[in-house]
Design brief:
This protein is mainly beta and about 140 residues long. It has a domain of about 100 residues: Deoxyuridine 5'-Triphosphate Nucleotidohydrolase, Chain A, CATH 2.70.40.10. Helices cover about 5% and strands about 35% of the residues. It contains one helix and ten strands, in the order E-E-E-E-E-H-E-E-E-E-E. The strands form three sheets. A four-stranded antiparallel beta sheet has the order 1-4-8-6. The chain is globular and about 55 Å long. It starts with a strand and ends in a 28-residue tail after the last strand. About 20% of the residues are buried.
Length: about 140
């Protein structure tokens, strides 16, 4: 699938890091200065990229597991969605969940972009729903572990 992209950064276009990777790494576009996130601080980090996702697909902006494991860096809205009709710059809403400051540098890989198919639905009003073994059981209702 070809996706049109405008790259306003000096960094290469996102690439898959391995042959079977689902996500392409997004890099921070911070040409003027790094951004330091203090503990529990959040910031919208620009990527310099704008894309035209095809109708019937979405771009899912997801965290990078290495940043989460090593530095406690997560995405506030994970996954973030890039809709097919959005043409603005992709931003990554990072949060520092650690107790030490973290510096985001220009060109650093800060998130992943996964392009996935989705369905558009229509609601069918109903008085009841079909029965299942789980029923209306909520959080934790499928057992421990």
């Amino acid at each position: 699938m070809l996706i049109p992209v405008v790259n306003r950064s000096r960094h290469p276009l996102p690439e898959y890091q391995t042959p079977h990777a689902a996500g392409l790494d997004l890099r921070a576009h911070l040409p003027d200065a790094p951004v330091t996130l203090g503990p529990l601080e959040r910031a919208l980090i620009p990527t310099g990229l704008a894309v035209a996702i095809p109708v019937g697909f979405e771009g899912q902006v997801r965290p990078r597991s290495g940043l989460a494991l090593r530095h406690g860096i997560a995405l506030v809205n994970s996954p973030g969605t890039v809709d097919a009709d959005y043409r603005g710059e992709i931003g990554v809403l990072l949060v520092n969940l650690s107790n030490v400051p973290f510096e985001v540098r220009d060109g650093e890989r800060v998130a992943q972009l996964v392009v996935a198919r989705h369905e558009t639905i229509a609601w069918q009003p109903a008085e009841t729903l079909s029965e299942t073994q789980r029923g209306a059981g909520g959080y934790g209702s499928t057992g421990a572990g």
